[in-house]
Give the backbone structure.
Amino acid sequence: MKRVRVRAPGKINASFRVGPLRTDGYHFVASTYLAVSLYEEVLATAKPGTPAGDVTVSISPASTLDPAALATIPLDDDNLAVRAARLVADVSESTCGVHLEITKHVPIAGGMGGGSADAAATLVACDALWHTGLSREELSQLGAELGADVPFALLGGAAVGLGVGDRLTAALAPTALHWVLVQSDFGLSTPLVYGALDTLRDGAEPPVPDQVDPHILAALRAGDPALLAGCLANDLQPAAVSLAPGLAEVLDAGKARGALATLISGSGPTVAMLAADERHARNLSAELGAAGYAAQAVQGPVHGAHRVLDS
Ligand code: ATP
């Protein structure tokens, strides 16, 4: 086998509670993750005759993001996909290096875990390319070394994330829910957004969140968008809006056009708008598009990182 192609989904957080700062500099969180049908793709190609640690990366011209944004992605050891390949190389008997070609569709620094999806796709691809035979659990443990969102990009579906978001429990969500995502033409740095939240909280210490709102899990189980609309929540939203006040207008634009609810995904700036069904999402997306917003309809939950046939 010379090439392996793997797809991994971006995520939205249907709920995101942020607790106190931990001693390691991260915050305790309780998150309801939902994998959505906006995917990253990684094509891993073996480089015969090169050593196992020889990992290179490029961005595919098929990527749908703005070229200026794509140009900000590090192509060295800071790239999460490169780091993921090295972690697999360290535990495999592989005898050659790998080139990773990433096709980006998930907005960069958009709060949708795009880099984490690249890492998850790379873990699965390199494991297959080098016949390492790691279990999903082992891949997830490697992924957690790279970032809190990587284990979820492997798992997919819907899940509750505790700890820093990496302690996952799958949630039952048998019915597809329909969303409109509105992207911004700028990114928000996750550490900056957490910093803004700490400033807004002004020293107040919230308790460690040890569960998500049970109503949200009931709404996912029932596949009931109206029920879910009442429980969407993101503690990071005021912080993201304080850094990018224009987001308030995007949130309102969705509501004014009939979205059941709107919220910022993770640290933003992507705004997720909940629709009643597929047709509603399509119409809402078209209306927002006509008004000049970068809107697209997606659905979720979808599967986590998985191999696709190489074209
Ligand atoms: P999260 O919410 O998980 O922090 P995000 O979706 O807001 O993530 P990403 O697009 O995953 O943001 O990446 C944030 C930063 O990580 C980028 O600004 C970039 O410098 C760096 N990065 C490293 N590897 C990648 C990658 N493969 N794709 C995109 N960005 C990457």
In short: The chain has one domain: 1-311. The mean pLDDT is 95.
